[in-house]
Design brief:
Blueprint lengths: L2 H14 L6 H9 L3 H11 L4 H17 L13 H10 L2 E6 L5 E6 L10 H27 L6 E6 L11 H14 L4 E7 L3 H10 L5 H6 E3 L5 H4 L10 H4 L22 H17 L19 H18 L18 H6 L2
Parallel strand pairs: 2-3, 3-4, 4-5
Antiparallel strand pairs: 1-2
Pfam family, one: CRAL_TRIO
Protein name: CRAL-TRIO domain-containing protein
Length: 345
């Protein structure tokens, strides 16, 4: 960290030391003891502008308090069949760790349908995975490797990506906006695998619009990416859709416990059991409540909405055989959005 960056971090820390309750308590759940790394994430998200980073982080803490995010890991999605349906249609999982100790998260972008539950259940599930990653997975990895580990690696499987994915653009924008505003700079590298032509065509248009820092994070790999990914992780940590010799469906695997998207996978079993245990511990005499957690859904930034609409228009042009035009010229994509750098493609 350079002198200027260190000075910005120190000034930011001095400002955050003045935070009072109830923001102070929820801030502890955000930083997990890694103050400098947390402040650096928010500073990066605001181009090292201390006042803007401070506003972003304080807004994040207020959102957490208003939506009781500190207790979201005490609210399981029940019954189990409903949660299984969420897992089968919102394809996210953790397959292992890189050799540097970074958790490897897999996303089945192309085959996620988001059609088995309400928007609130998918948002709740997404935030719960974020919180479990930040409060349990990353601190555990940090202790194991003896150094701060505060980011992860994501492998995005584009198998099955079709124009029908546009039906999910509103939900994906909501989720990405939540991440933009409250979980910035949590991904070290995005590895994109099994990319069909429609993705490749869109990527050619979008890539030049990304800031350099973002472009460096995104790597589009050949085929299922197996050989390249084995350079940074052991075979046991490969997502199931990268273990096969050829590309194919990422939703199913020969063995359920190898499919990191499945509720039967060890990661999801640990996550779900943890949430149920925390629920019982918080209210031991009360039955677990059914129903989704209603988190305030943010309004996406005007820039993000415009970009989403433009990409939607371009994909329709592609569908109609007109190719991809250059109408995205002049727009920049927000650096902090998983959706705008990956899912919308």
């Amino acid at each position: 960290m350079g002198t200027g960056s260190q000075d910005a971090t120190n000034r930011f820390k001095a400002m955050m030391d003045q935070v009072e309750e109830p923001l102070k308590t929820t801030y502890q759940n955000v930083h997990q003891g890694y103050h400098a790394e947390t402040l650096a994430r928010f500073l990066k998200a605001r181009e090292w502008n201390v006042s803007k980073a401070h506003k972003m982080l304080v807004d994040c803490l207020r959102w957490r308090v208003q939506n009781d995010i500190d207790n979201i890991l005490t609210k399981p999605i029940i019954p189990t069949d409903l949660y299984r349906a969420v897992r089968d249609s919102q394809l996210i999982g953790m397959s292992g760790y890189s050799r540097e100790g970074l958790p490897v998260f897999a996303h089945g972008v192309g085959l996620s349908t988001f059609d088995k539950a309400s928007v609130h259940y998918y948002v709740q599930s997404h935030i719960q995975i974020n919180e479990y990653r930040d409060r349990i997975v990353l601190p555990t990895a940090s202790r194991k490797y003896g150094r701060p580990i505060t980011t992860c690696v994501k492998v995005l499987d584009m198998t099955g990506l079709k124009l029908s994915a546009l039906n999910q653009i509103k939900l994906l924008t909501i989720i990405s906006t939540i991440d933009d505003m409250n979980y910035p700079e949590k991904t070290n590298t995005y590895y994109i695998v099994n990319a069909p032509y429609i993705f490749s065509a869109c990527w050619k248009v979008v890539k030049p619009l990304l800031q350099e820092r973002t472009r460096k994070k995104v790597q589009v790999l050949s085929g299922n990416g197996r050989d390249e990914l084995l350079k940074i992780m052991d075979a046991a940590s490969l997502p199931h859709f990268c273990k096969r010799e050829g590309s194919g469906s990422s939703r199913h695997s020969e063995y359920a416990n190898e499919n990191c998207f499945s509720l039967d996978h060890p990661f999801h079993q640990q996550l779900y059991n943890y949430i149920k245990q925390q629920s019982l511990a918080s209210e031991p005499t009360q039955p677990i409540k059914q129903g989704s957690v209603h988190v305030d859904l943010p309004e996406p930034a005007a820039e993000g909405t415009e970009i989403a609409k433009t990409i939607e228009s371009e994909m329709h042009k592609f569908e109609n055989g007109n190719g991809l035009s250059g109408s995205l010229d002049g727009h920049k994509i927000n650096d902090n959005s998983d959706y705008r750098t990956t899912h919308c493609l």
